[in-house]
Amino acid sequence: MRKILSSPNGIAGTLLLIIVLSIALFGPWLAPFDPQQFHPRNRLEAPSLQFLLGTDQYGRDILSRILTGAPSTVFFGLGATALGVGVGSVIGVIAGVAGGRTDSLIMRLLDGLLAMPELLFTLLIVTFLGGGTGQALLAVAVTFTPGMARVARSSVLSVRTREYVLAAIARGESRTWIVFREVLPNALGPIIVEATIRVSFAIMIGATLGFLGLGAQPPSTEWGLMVSEARQFMFRNPWCVAIPGIAIAMTAMGFNLFGDALRDAFDPKRSR
Questions:
Q1: What is the DSSP string of 140-159?
Q2: 54-71 pLDDT per residue, tens
Q3: Of the candidates 114, 110, 77, which has an alpha carbon nearest to the alpha carbon of residue 205?
Q4: Cβ(240)–Cβ(230) below 8 Å
Q5: Which pLDDT tens digit goes with each residue over 99-112?
Q6: What is each CA distance from 15 to 21, 31, 79, in whole angstroms?
Q7: What is the H or E stretch that residue 34 is in?
Q8: Neighbour-count burial of 192, counting CB atoms closer than 10 A to its CB (0-12 exposed, 13-18 middle, 19+ buried)
Q9: Where are the beta strands (DSSP E) in 100-168?
Q10: What is the pLDDT, as a whole number, of residue 62?
Q11: Helix (H, G, I), strand (E, B) or coil at 55
Q12: How far apart are alpha carbons 216 and 243 in whole angstroms?
């Protein structure tokens, strides 16, 4: 953390993450109104003392909806990334350790999946599975799996020929012991960095799916869905679109900046 906080990117990313994660954890209890409560006389109002961030087309308090929608948006990104990173890392480690034909077969299959753009691949999977938060999370995780497998494989290959691994082989240690005690602990750095950065992409893809109606469904307070529902009123009251859009951007930026600082901390030469 000392290395991360020594750079402007690290400080900015850490502060943004503290704010976003605090809102995600405590937001529903801090909401001043019921996020689904209608105020017909206060439709599409600008920010005021009563409604600090204004109201949407139904008179619902935008601040309350942002606070209650933070958990679904943030934890969607974390969950999708964790699942994709877990599966992809296992595949990449297997390919890197096995080598030979097994490695070639696995990577050729993954190369075919990587040839398709991530968003298009996600839309294809969601269209096949059907709309919904669970289906969208699974689609993003599947989309992330090939890229994470390649990162994990590259990291394992760079560690596999190090002196301490060769020494373990010379001592006659089993392959399982070598993988879990020598290879994996020293190959986790790039995987953790890539996972941190990918959370921001998962959040943006999840918001995109919500905007398109393929992710979270009404009456959810997911931020992408909020933008979708209010976009036809953006010229009358831009706040109802700008506020959730800014929240998505801040969250993605926080994870991205923190990931950049984490990458520099793992690679001092890059930071210089």
A1: HHHHHHHHHHHHHHHHHHHH
A2: 999 999 999 999 999 999
A3: 77
A4: yes
A5: 888 888 998 899 88
A6: 10, 21, 21
A7: none
A8: middle
A9: none
A10: 94
A11: strand
A12: 18
Nearest CA-CA partner of 86 in 202, 187, 192, 206: 192
Architecture of domain 4-271: Orthogonal Bundle (1.10)
d(CA 149, CA 89): 5
H/E segment holding residue 162? none
Encoded tokens for 93: 């480690």
pTM for this model (two decimals): 0.88
d(CA 149, CA 106) in angstroms, rounded, equals 9
Cα–Cα distance measured from residue 207 to residue 227, given in angstroms and rounded to the nearest whole number: 9
In angstroms, the CA 136 to CA 123 distance is 9
172 falls in which pLDDT band (50, 70, 90)? confident
Per the listing, tokens 């934890």 go with 75
Residue where the block lists tokens 């109802």: 240
Q: How far apart are alpha carbons 197 and 105 in whole angstroms?
A: 28
> Which candidate, 68, 153, 144, 53, places its Cα nearest to that of 102?
153
Q: Is the pLDDT of residue 250 over 80?
A: yes
DSSP category for residue 231: G
